[in-house]
Design goal:
Keywords: Coiled coil, Hydrolase, Nuclease. One of its GO terms (biological process) is nucleobase-containing compound metabolic process. This protein has two domains: 5-215, Nucleotidyltransferase, domain 5; 219-250. The chain has a seven-stranded mixed β-sheet, sandwiched between helices. The chain is of the alpha/beta class. It has helices at residues 26-42, 89-100, 112-120, 153-160, 187-215, 232-270, 285-299, 305-310, 315-321; strands at 5-11, 17-23, 49-55, 68-75, 78-82, 106-108, 130-132. The chain is built from nine helices and seven strands, in the order ββαβββαβαβαααααα. It is elongated and about 130 Å long. It starts with a strand and ends in a 26-residue tail after the last helix.
């Protein structure tokens, strides 16, 4: 198997030029796949990769299945064309990892057959990461039975990108589809493959612009009934953020005012006494109250609580105050008001 790498430039609509790398080498594939992964990580708006596949010709006797021949990837103004049928196992493993393991979103036109061909190569792109443009846009409308007709790449590109793509399929001879195994590809086949991938990418760039700004909420990128406006979830989040900001500002103002009052009080306590005022600075409230109470007790003749316990009682005072030393005769017997307990003759 001969290894090769070609770097070409082709002109697309509006006179734009795209850079095309055509290869089957492992090192070159690894280099450009890493570049695409880095572009994808840095991209903020158009976070997807254009994808297109070419197969070997079908067997007219339907005895043999056609298989994957060429893989095309596109981002920005760059296209990577991998001649898959002429690559080794390491190069196929790199592509398998790029498709399955890195969470990259791909966009293509009509992925039905592409899914089958990749499945035969043990490559399965998650359905959530693979966008079929034919399922999003219908230019032809409905047929006689009322079913939506699937549009080809040429009709979609003509309606969405540029009218110059109306002849993109007619300019490529039908018999040239039988030469995707040819090594290396002819200039006509290489240009056709590169433009297919580039158009797949540019189609979804236009569609995603419409979805992002006219259909989807710009905050969460989810569809909302009010097209082009913020959905209710993002609106509630914005209101909550504004309230939190106002509350934070009010709390900061309150803390600043409290700090200023504390600083003023500390400054008044640290200030030296004036020369014309010999009185010392007043102590804190609790200490001042204690000092006032002690001063009042010293200046008044009121009995102290401690004097009651220090006082020596006399025998008479102790006798009169002690209920246990009082004779029973001195005590008045309680009057019995119950007539049933009164003995006869006692009244």
């Amino acid at each position: 198997m001969q290894a090769f790498t070609q770097i070409r430039t082709f002109t697309v609509h509006g006179g734009k030029e795209i850079d095309v790398v055509y290869t089957n080498e492992e090192e070159t594939m690894s280099k450009y796949l890493k570049m695409y992964a880095q572009w994808y990580a840095e991209e903020e708006e158009n976070k997807f990769v254009g994808l297109d596949l070419e197969y070997t010709p079908e067997d007219p006797n339907h005895e043999l299945e056609n298989y994957l021949a060429v893989v095309q990837l596109s981002m920005k103004n760059h296209v990577l064309v991998c001649h898959y049928s002429w690559t080794n196992g390491e190069c196929k493993a790199l592509l398998r990892s790029f498709f399955q393991d890195q969470g990259i979103v791909f966009c293509t036109v009509d992925k039905r057959q592409d899914f089958v061909k990749l499945y035969f190569e043990n490559i399965i792109i998650p359905s959530k990461n693979w966008i079929d443009i034919q399922e999003l846009v219908h230019v032809k409308g409905r047929n006689d039975r009322g079913y939506l007709m699937r549009d080809g790449m040429a009709s979609l590109a003509t309606s969405i990108i540029d009218e110059s793509y109306s002849e993109m399929k007619n300019k490529f001879p039908t018999e040239r589809h039988n030469y995707w195994e040819e090594q290396p590809l002819s200039d006509l086949n290489l240009e056709y493959a590169a433009k297919d991938a580039y158009v797949s990418y540019q189609l979804y760039v236009k569609i995603w612009f419409f979805l992002r700004y006219l259909v989807f909420c710009p905050g969460c990128k989810k569809e909302d009934t009010l097209r082009g406006k913020v959905c209710y979830k993002c609106n509630a989040a914005e209101i909550k953020a504004e309230r939190a900001q106002k509350n934070a500002a009010a709390e900061i103002a309150r803390l600043n005012a409290e700090l200023a009052s504390v600083q003023a009080e500390l400054a008044s306590l640290k200030a030296p006494a004036s020369s014309d005022n010999t009185q010392q600075a007043s102590p804190p409230h609790g200490m001042r109250r204690k000092m006032n109470d002690e001063h009042w007790l010293e200046s008044t003749d009121a009995p102290k609580s401690s004097d009651y316990w220090r006082r020596k009682w006399t025998d008479d005072e102790q006798k009169s105050d002690d209920p246990w030393t009082t004779k029973k005769s001195d005590q008045q017997s309680p009057k019995n008001d119950n007539p049933w307990l009164t003995k006869p003759g006692n009244y």
